[in-house]
Prior knowledge:
The protein is of the alpha/beta class. 29% of the residues lie in helices and 15% in strands. It has 12 helices and 11 strands. It has helices spanning 65-77, 96-104, 121-131, 145-152, 157-169, 189-199, 217-220, 224-227, 231-234, 298-303, 308-321, 339-342; strands at 31-35, 82-86, 111-116, 135-139, 174-180, 202-207, 249-253, 260-264, 277-280, 285-287, 296-297. It has an 11-stranded mixed beta sheet with strand order 7-8-6-5-4-3-2-1-9-10-11. The relative contact order is 0.18. The model is unreliable at 1-16 (pLDDT under 50). S-adenosylmethionine is lined by residues 40, 46-47, 86-87, 89, 115-117, 139, 177, 179, 206, 208-209, 211, 213, 339-340, 344.
Amino acid sequence: MNASPIRFYPKQQALNLANELHDSFGRRLNYLRISVTDRCNMRCDYCRPAADAYRAEPRSHILQFEEIERIVRVAAGLGVNKVRITGGEPLVRKDLPDLIAKIAAIDGIIDLAMTSNATYLAKHAQALKDAGLHRINISLDTLHPLRFQKLTGSDLQPVLDGIQAAKGVGLLPIKLNTVLMKGINEDEVAELIDFATAMGATIRFIELMPMKQGMDWDKHYVSIEDVLRRDDVRARVEVGDMTTGNTAARYLPLKHGKGEVGFIMPMSDRFCEGCNRLRLTADGGLRSCLPADKHMNLRDVLRGGGTDDDIRSVFMRSALMKPEIGIYDFSADVDKRSMIHVGG
Ligand code: SAM
């Protein structure tokens, strides 16, 4: 893997056009992904350090809902209008709909989404919808119950029930996310496309990223390009130029019927050019780039009596720290680099 060094431009000014947050490269940052917990009911080896070695943050380090609400309010004043709740598993956080309601009520937030493994979704879908959640992305790596159990340590059926529930209450559009893993699920792409099509959902296949995780990246990484060579996939997807937008996913149309299939290629086709994201970790870290470890902490600012101007200043400085390109450092060996910590 060729990796050019991360470049920071700390002396440049963030362009503050009409109070909007921009980084040193002119990218507008209007999307905040918020991890509300670094705990999860699942035990996926591709997401957390090996052998359950991940040490979750002490509960006292985790941001309270009121703290998250305040941060989002300040961010909205800087032009952040899109928020995604993630984790860990957001639904292991008690009373999550209360947080959704707080964020939904903030002026300027026009898109409020969540990423979940859906195990507890059937129980909470209606409350989330009523609280103001617009839509949901659900992780689904396999449709085979035994594989699912082996990969996640959990049962598949509650997840399928959760997907149905999301559809039933209108958390739409539903997107399904599948991390592709050689020797684990790369033979299931066609089956998963058929499942999503039948559900009226859009499926997106994601290349495995080398974060700090219990799964050997070299052994299990498979590129989207390889997947698109499969006959059973080409029978379903019109392979050609992919549509692009300002999201991480690229899309190809289905061959039969309406709809499309998404591909997220952090390894083979970096999408940094259009990146509009900042990430807030459950313990208050404000990360400007998924694989970059350098970040500032908002919890310290809040709990140290910081003003809204102080919070704003952290956002501005964080924007300036955003590298032009995200570089995956294969030698990283820190728990705080795992997806369960950063929030996928
Ligand atoms: N628990 C929720 C879920 O399962 O969707 C939200 C958190 S999870 C960290 C968010 C996303 O990160 C999921 O779609 C998951 O598949 C993805 N993810 C985790 N580790 C990954 C890795 N090493 N490479 C690519 N995607 C990963």
